[in-house]
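Box S1 | Example of a co-folding query
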Amino acid sequence: MKIIKTIAELRSHLAVFKRPAFVPTMGNLHAGHLALVRQAKPLGDVLAVSIFVNRLQFLPHEDFDTYPRTWEADCQALEAAGCDVVFAPSEQELYPEPQGFKIHPPTELADLLEGHFRPGFFVGVCTVVMKLFACVQPGVAVFGQKDYQQLMVIRRMVQQFALPIDVQGAPTLRAADGLALSSRNNYLSPADRGEAVHLSKSLQAMAQALRDGASDITALEQQAQHDLTERGWQPDYLTVRRRHDLQSPANSDLANLVQNNGLVVLGAARIGNTRLIDNLEV
Ligand code: PAF
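Box S1 (continued) | Returned holo structure for pantoate
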């Protein structure tokens, strides 16, 4: 496995390949990332993984400085998972001057849910992903479905800019109790780790209620938020959305959407100081 820190070296190393497969990450890798790597491996003729903690996608009060950097362990895990190239640029390499040009995703897709609670997040994500795409020039890129809205925003960006990249989603990996794997799970105290599964449990309950014929979305969402709040969480949202555009469905469309697998329930909530997100397609 080759470790590359500059764009120039990356370009010259990848020049001989026709279809690089690419998995962008911010490091602190867990089994969920490694599943993305294994999914991507057979899709290209070389597999590149980037490790770059992207300052642009963190709000000033968020965890950029404390985001865990676990370089040695990440490299060992990537090598074992079959990664060929780790691209780990410094900030100076990727952003040698303030990044004045940025990708602003459309508001109807990016200013809701995560974009509402983390303003500017998707501008930071799209900008770095576009730049990483320009560096790696992948034929295929794999993103986790745990970041459901991110995957959707990236797909739309690739489509609207006509980038020749096949974007694939990878299913969310879960711990034995059902908690979606996330780098931020490392922040959880033992007590909060025990509690953390209740985010996915709430989403499961919402999904089940929809399958059982629930017909009032507002009531369903309020009940789920209330239940988590009672348990000591601070929910940002627990919500039912249409899969294809992440907008709220009309109550009158629910039955039809459930029948046609057209819904997703998404949640973001804070337990202790840790903000977790999760989703389930219905
Ligand atoms: O999902 C992530 O880890 C990040 O948002 C990404 C796609 C690597 C961009 O920094």
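DSSP finds twelve helices and nine strands in the chain. Residues 24-26, 54, 57, 125, 128-129, 147, 150 surround pantoate (CB under 6 Å).
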